[in-house]
Amino acid sequence: MRNPRAFFRPLAVGAPEPVQEVPFKPSRMIHFFDPSNERMAAKVPALVGTVDILLGNLEDAIQADRKEAARAGLINIAQTTDFGATQLWTRINSLDSPWVLDDLLALVPAIGEKLDVIMVPKVEGPEDIYYIDRLLAQLEAKAGISRPILVHAILETAAGVNNVEAIAAASPRMQGMSLGPADLAASRRMKTTRVGGGHPGYLVRTDPVDGEINADRPIFQQDLWHYTIAAMVDACAANEILPFYGPFGDIADVVACEDQFRNAFLLGCVGTWTLHPVQVGIARKVFSPSAQDVAWARKVIDAMGDGTGAVMIDGKMQDDATVKQCRVVVGLADALAANDPELAAAYASNV
Ligand code: GLV
Ligand code: MG
Fold it and tell me: I want to staple 138 with a disulfide (CB 3.0 to 4.6 A). Which of 12, 59, 239, 318 is the partner?
């Protein structure tokens, strides 16, 4: 284990100093694009400003014979696009693949100044983060990059879930984590073939009335991902990094998608992946606190004055703990409204 002072020293001579805090920028949606697809790549400049994060995907969903085209496409897009306040991320190939080393060797010198975050798939433990951490420092030093590229891990292996706390704490480069329900299901040998969301077979059923076990008994679908998202949120919050939901593969089912996103938001996630334009609006709606919630939170904060003691508002008890919850809501609302005049107006009109 590195000592606490060494933790914030660069891992290569000439590499930028590690950040002390993860900079919070609006991060409601990580919008995936395929940089090997010229038609899709041509649309990227028009997406700037409409999504919080644009991610050039190099890993799964890119065919083996398109890996180099994806890498080259991403470099070209990054070099020729002004991203403004929109973050640029990439998902590199997994550490056990033959492509990842070339991904990093090509991307860091060419577009290292423009890349905010590198998403690392199939992370199994802190050793994977140590490897990336040192390699990025060496490449940043060599290329003269002025600020560290941050690292985001996908939680999508059983080993990764076992080691989630150690992964979150592995480096000051850690920016956050996403749930990867598809790979995680395979790794755990779960019997779902879906990408995220519920499953009709994972349920609880109400008790029989008068022993009538075959009568129509209401059933309730349960959330397959609750445990993992909650563990990820705790690991991230305890290490002051940001948790995200991952992919929701049933693009047509915008209703269940909204439910899944909202569960993640309520549990503490700051954003989600969006795989299709139709999911962008859902993510924006769900991961921006509602105007009503913001107005209520402001009311509680105002009523609580210095934050000590207890008051009743509309029959609900408020104290130090509820003020803290309300500050989370208002803090997020203010950060989002600073970049979004529509949200700013909605939040202002409810005060
Ligand atoms: C994402 O990469 C997933 O496997 O769900
Ligand atoms: Mg995956």
Answer: 12
- Structural domains counted in the chain: 2
**Which residues have a beta carbon within 5 Å of ligand 2, which is an ion?**
156, 180, 183
Domain, as residue range, for 326: 292-349
Atom of ligand 1 nearest to the CA of 121: 2
- Cβ of 183 closer than 6 Å to ligand 1, yes or no, is yes
Residue 240 tokens read as 């002051």
Check if 176 has its Cβ closer than 6 Å to any atom of ligand 1: no
Same domain, 124 and 203: yes
CA 155 to centroid of ligand 2, rounded, Å: 9
Q: Is the CB of 59 under 6 A from ligand 1?
A: no
- Residue 105: is its pLDDT beyond 70? yes
Per-residue pLDDT band for 350 (boundaries 50, 70, 90) equals low
Nearest in space to 272 (alpha carbons), one of 252, 289, 247? 247
Q: Please state, in angstroms and as integers, the Cα–Cα distance from residue 15 to each residue in 20, 48, 137, 139, 326, following that order.
A: 15, 29, 5, 8, 39
Asked if 103 and 71 touch (Cβ cutoff 8 Å), the reply is yes
pTM: 0.96
**Could you tell me if 70 and 188 lie in one domain?**
yes
pLDDT above 60: residue 248: yes
156 lines ligand 1 (CB under 6 A): yes
pLDDT of residue 134: 98
